[in-house]
C-alpha cells in the first residue's frame, strides 16, 4: 500500500467515500468529490513522499478539494448577489418616460382653463367632487361635465385622435356688433 510505484487506491475508496459523504451529506456529491480527489491525486502524484501515508494523503486531498469547492460556491453566490444588487439599481433609460410625461403634460396644458382646473382639483389634488365644485364656485353637475370633457380630450390624445387646438391667428374672430373695434 505504501509502495511509491504503486498505490492501492481501490482499497482506499471505502474511507474516501465515507469521508466525502460525511462532508457533503449527499451521495451524488460525495461520488463527485471522490472522483475529483482521485484526479487531483493522479495529477500531483509527484508530490507524494515515498514511504508516506497514502490514506492520509488522499484524505487530505479530498478535504482540500471539498473546501475549495465550498469556497468557489460561496464566491459565486456573492458574485450573483452583487450582480443582483447592481441590476436592481440599474434602471431603464428615463428618456422614454420623460418624453411621455412631457407629452401628457402638454396635452393637459392644452385643455381649456375650466377643464384643466376641474381635472387638477379632482385628479391631482384628490378633492371630492363637492369640494372641487365649491372651490371653483360652480355646481357639481358643471364640474362633472367639465371633467368628462377633459377626460375625453385626454383619452383622444392617448388614442391619437385628438385635434390640436387652432393657433391664435387661425381662431375665428368674433365680430363686434354695435361698437368699435379698438
Describe what this molecule looks like in 3D:
The protein is mainly α and 182 residues long. The chain contains seven helices and no strands. Helix 1 (13-24) runs parallel beside helix 3 (54-89) and helix 2 crosses helix 3. The chain is rod-shaped, with a radius of gyration of 40 Å.
SSE blueprint and pairings:
Layout lengths: L12 H12 L2 H17 L10 H36 L5 H15 L3 H12 L4 H8 L3 H20 L23
Helix pairs in contact: 1-2, 1-3, 2-3, 5-6, 5-7, 6-7
Mean pLDDT: 83
**Rg:** 40 Å
Strand content: under 5%
- The N- to C-terminal Cα distance equals 120 Å
Class inferred from helices and paired strands: mainly alpha
Query: Oligomerization state of this entry?
Result: single chain
Low-confidence stretches: none
The ordered string of helix (H) and strand (E) elements is HHHHHHH
**Share of helical residues:** 55-70%
What's the story with the biggest beta sheet?
none
Overall outline: rod-shaped
In total, how many beta strands?
Answer: 0
| Tally of separate helices | 7
In short:
With 182 residues, the chain is mainly alpha-helical. 66% of the residues lie in helices and 0% in strands.
Features:
mainly alpha, 182 residues, 66% helix
